[in-house]
Amino acid sequence: MDQHITKIKTTLDALKNLIDDIESDKQNENDQDFSLELGDLPYRVIHLNKNPYVNIIEQEEVHYEALQKENERLKARLSLIESGNDANVTMRIDEAVNNAHQVELLTQMVADYKSREEKILTSLKKTAFGFREACLLLTGYRVDALKDNIYRLSLEPSNSDERLFFDIKRDGRVVLLENDYSKRFSRHINTYLKNADSYPAFLAAIILESFESSNKAVNATQAIDMSMSMSTTIIPNYR
């Protein structure tokens, strides 16, 4: 508070000196005798409509009035401070400092929460990836969650057309969405969905059918390879 008062007093003294200098200059200008008889001058006097000297005087007067107002304002503020009635100003300063401190704390808290959120999201992504891989290894299906509770199941490996789509309702009901691929399993739909209402059995039946088809294809390929190998074997002639 003492430093604040000292600073204001110093500013007041500087303003007083500046005002005194301006008043002294104006007094000196008034004391000078600029009255000359026109006939006494050996040359013609031309008066400008906008005399630069007059403009300077007017600007100095405006500056002088502004300094007087600032001087009065600082005097009033100094009087309030010295009388102890400047509590509102001090309170506002304290509130501003506290608010700045609170903003800094909140900014740090937001940064901490964002850092935690990023860590949680990273952990969730890893968990989700691990869960999807576990589903693929244990069930044979890759599960992808689409919008509006729609789930896509595809066998691995498979092409883009060999996919099943399911709509899981909020009440827990599961609905198989019909497409060209699902129509291939009409027998399994009747047996496991319509009659038994068992989606796990339906999906397992498709897995077993795919497994059997793959084995048949492998066996057929092996048989063809063996047949071709036998047909190309050269039998030696012992005659």
UniProtKB/TrEMBL annotation:
Record keywords, A-Z: Cell cycle, Cell division, Coiled coil, Mitosis, Nucleus
One Pfam family per UniProt: MAD
InterPro entries for this protein: Mad1
Coiled-coil region list: 5-32, 57-84
SUPFAM superfamilies: Mitotic arrest deficient-like 1, Mad1
Protein's cellular compartments: Nucleus
Superkingdom of the source species: Eukaryota
GO CC terms: kinetochore; mitotic spindle; nuclear envelope
GO BP annotation list: attachment of mitotic spindle microtubules to kinetochore; cell division; mitotic spindle assembly checkpoint signaling
Subcellular location, principal: nucleus
PANTHER family, A to Z: MITOTIC SPINDLE ASSEMBLY CHECKPOINT PROTEIN MAD1 (PTHR23168:SF0), MITOTIC SPINDLE ASSEMBLY CHECKPOINT PROTEIN MAD1 MITOTIC ARREST DEFICIENT-LIKE PROTEIN 1 (PTHR23168)
Similarity field: Belongs to the MAD1 family.
Protein name: Mitotic spindle assembly checkpoint protein MAD1
Organism classification: Eukaryota, Metazoa, Ecdysozoa, Arthropoda, Chelicerata
